[in-house]
Amino acid sequence: MAESNTDTKSSNQMWGGRFASGPDAIMEEINASIGFDKKLFAQDIRGSIAHATMLAHQGIISAEDKDKIVHGLNTILSEIESGNFEFSRRLEDIHMNIEARLATLIGPAAGRLHTARSRNDQVALDFRLWVKEELEKTEKMLTGLIAAFLDRAEEHAESVMPGFTHLQTAQPVTFGHHCMAYVEMFGRDRSRVRHAIEHLDESPIGAAALAGTGYPIDRHMTAKALGFREPTRNSIDTVSDRDFAIEFLAIAAITGMHLSRLAEEIVIWSTPQFGFVRLSDAFSTGSSIMPQKKNPDAAELVRAKTGRINGSLIALLTIMKGLPLAYSKDMQEDKEQVFDAAESLELAIAAMTGMVRDMTVNTARMKAAAGSGFSTATDLADWLVREAGLPFRDAHHVTGRAVALAESKGCDLAELPLVDLQAIHSAITDTVYDVLTVEASVASRKSFGGTAPSEVRKQIAFWRARN
Ligand code: ARG
Q1: What is the pLDDT of residues 345-400, one digit of tens each?
Q2: Domain stop point among 338, 364, 390
Q3: Residue 394's domain is classified under what CATH number?
Q4: Ligand 1: distance of its center to the CA of 228 in Å?
Q5: Per-residue pLDDT tens over the stretch 12-44
Q6: EC number(s) per UniProt (predicted)?
Q7: Would you please indicate which residues are annotated as catalytic (active-site) residues?
Q8: Residues with Cβ within 8 Å of residue 312, at least 6 apart in sequence
Q9: Does residue 326 have a cis bond before it (omega within 30 degrees)?
Q10: Which pTM value belongs to this model?
Q11: Rounded to the nearest whole angstrom, what is the distance from the C-alpha of residue 128 to the centroid of ligand 1?
């Protein structure tokens, strides 16, 4: 049966169409990462320039070879940036594509670049640099989103809206206060980003394959040249660690979850039934069949991007979970997850910032809704505690009876005649009506962090000083 081996290479029916050319083609396709890791070209070149410069400084390669290498790498950088570089899948990944081109450009000196390093520390470096830049970009974008919310909060520090629990009207709050809740959420996301930058700020280059190297390299020099705080301490950990990528994805997932909650609120608020906000035309679409519709597509897509980002986080956690130390090729699957999540996150933050800035807030609708659903019932109970000396539990009970009465009469608490209220509890006087309006309710909640406009303004001032 030996002869059948010869044609498996050209046409094995079991492998089917695209693999008709046999095992070499399958291996090339499964092994190559150039299709996605070409995104790392700038980081790869920066890393190689720093490495070559250090090698020359340490006398490991000559200054002439270093100059040729640096010149060649800069040429490659402009070739790639101008779209004049031919990526080859046969050369597997970005590292070998660049090194092969360097050999064509400068000859044998190119072979000295890979002294005292391996693709294992090289890819760890390139990817770390990429993730670091992405985190810095995310930090800026979150700052922009927070700024948009601060502006809206300031504008609406006094605008009353219903506050919800269980999506049922609970107590009146201000729209400014609601906006500031998102500032807190995105502020936490931003501080997670800052911590992640601190965590990853160690240079992997020089860990080599996994054990370090016998050449007299200076890892502090390369760390400094590449803008890292210091070199990593353990060469085995260095080439097997992808925590920085997982942290990025975890932060993206949490931020995505926040964005998705906001998206959901915008979807609800922009329904004709709620009518709290109107999205700008820029961030909504019409229907091809129903002329009256204005759909919150951007918000819906932000909500959906969260699913994608969560998928990437789980994918990378799963890829890493059973890997023995140090490097395994499994780790090549880290990049697409991070690239995809980064793209989704950037787009989601940008779309949300635009929506928050552009949406029209219907304060009249919000205020009307704030007054319905007996939202000031707690204020009545608090009045009974404060003015009539009732224990809160009793006041809660009395208020419940007043709500039931108003419900049966089809009116609001503030519309119940005084005699009716006094029939429920004799201590009630007409000053109770002062607390039954939504404005009075909101203004009274002056506890630290509360919804009173004066408190909301303090929250805004706190964040303005930090944004
Ligand atoms: N393309 C590889 C990756 O992304 C680079 C590292 C390859 N190292 C190796 N020992 N095969 O992980």
Answers
A1: 999 999 999 999 999 999 999 999 998 878 889 999 999 999 999 999 999 999 99
A2: 364
A3: 1.10.40.30
A4: 22
A5: 555 556 656 677 889 999 999 999 999 999 999
A6: 4.3.2.1
A7: 166, 287
A8: 249, 252, 337, 338, 340, 341
A9: yes
A10: 0.92
A11: 14
